Amino acid sequence: MCTRLLSSLSSVLSSPSLPFSLFSLFILLVFVLHLWRRGGGSSRPTLVRGPGVWRLQFGPWLWEEGHLTCFSVRCRLGPLFSMQLGPHFTLVVNSYDLAKEVLLTRGRDFAGRPKMLLTRGGKDIAFCDYSALWKSHRRLVHSALSLFGEGGRLQDIGKRPRETLIIHGCVDDLVAELGSVGSRAFDPSAAVTRAVTNVVCTLVFSATYRRDDAELKEVIDYNNGIVETIARGGLVDLFPWLQLEEQVGLERPVRLSDRTRLPYVEAVIQEGLRIRPRQPGPHSPHGHPVQPGTRVLVNMWALHHNPTDWPKPDLFNPRFLDGRGGRVSPSCFLPFGAGPRVCVGESLARLELFLFLSSLLQRISFSLPPAGPVPDLRGRLGVVLQPPPYLVVATPRHT
Ligand code: HEM
């Protein structure tokens, strides 16, 4: 990093446009100093009552310097603090109680979105302000996706053979692709991204992307996949409900009805969603009035890593089961957000997570390359939190 910085600096210094570069550098320094001075000292917000407060959808800056920053920020500044994000006065919500108020109790007041250049006028769903346009778009998408049942009620989804067939088709392609690589270590992110993208593309456009599709490559380059590697422990002797294979076997595809028999898979998925939340979702708090136009962020990272709610929060521990294998769902677990702007794709996402993960584990053994690096689990900045590139060996289990 330092070397790259030095080499860029030396090329700038040797360039004919040196006066211009120095001027730009000067302007940049003044700007940074200005922001630093404005931001400094505002550890507690001054709040003013007002209706219709905006909230910001994505705030990956919270992960700068690694995810732990979020938590240390929470420790230092408590459940609510303000900061100056460029020109925007921004409140950051770090506790479940305040998040509940922002997302649910006063959900509509905080359901707005700021205007952002990149969103081209916010005509989509995620970036659209709380408006009649957003409502009609959301209703449209929701009715399409509610083919999958209401959020979390996967038993309803089991009655939808077309959707599960589509997912199984994409899983089959993925298994074939992963299984064809052989014993060399590789990064499966692109294949997995294509498989989950193809589920939505088949449902909506009846079309899928093939390998090496230029358009898909562009999407992947931008988004770079969301994949989790999960190692299985040897706890099955102690806890019978951990036996995956015994519940489903290796011969037939995993069905949604297997979900009740695979609570550990579910708990692993929940833990993955907790320990690496998609983003610090947006939104205020304990009756504190908030000035209109203030951006409010719900720091999902802090919510999901609060040691009061989650003992040893940085430990990956599928804790969503009680001692007898029954499901536990703490109210402070909000991987899909809550309230009016809750994730509209939650049902589909849960369906895919279950079928992809259980089918992949059923048909492929994943291992680390013998001499390779252990995947970096910190995540990296993006529109959503993504895993950095990593290598695994995928060995088909049926041959
Ligand atoms: C593991 C998978 C997923 C996670 C963890 C996730 C999480 C989230 C979260 C936290 C939000 C913001 C909620 C808020 O602002 O309070 C969101 C919004 C959204 N999600 Fe997802 N999501 C997932 C998958 C999907 C899928 C598969 C789709 C579509 C097929 C989808 C479509 C959307 C849309 C359209 C919004 C914006 C909703 C609005 O602003 O009204 N998501 N999601």
UniProtKB/TrEMBL annotation:
Keyword Metal-binding: yes
One term of GO molecular function: steroid 17-alpha-monooxygenase activity
GO BP terms, alphabetized: hormone biosynthetic process; progesterone metabolic process
Keyword hit for Oxidoreductase: yes
Listed transmembrane segments: 20-36
Keywords of the record: Heme, Iron, Membrane, Metal-binding, Monooxygenase, Oxidoreductase, Transmembrane, Transmembrane helix
Obligatory cofactor(s): heme
Domain of life: Eukaryota
InterPro entries: Cyt_P450 (IPR001128), Cyt_P450_CS (IPR017972), Cyt_P450_E_grp-I (IPR002401), Cyt_P450_sf (IPR036396)
Pfam family name, one: p450
Binding-site list for heme: C343
Classification via SUPFAM superfamilies: Cytochrome P450
Record PANTHER family: CYTOCHROME P450 FAMILY 17 POLYPEPTIDE 2, STEROID 17-ALPHA-HYDROXYLASE/17,20 LYASE
Family: Belongs to the cytochrome P450 family.
Protein's recorded name: Cytochrome P450, family 17, subfamily A, polypeptide 2
Organism: Neogobius melanostomus (round goby)
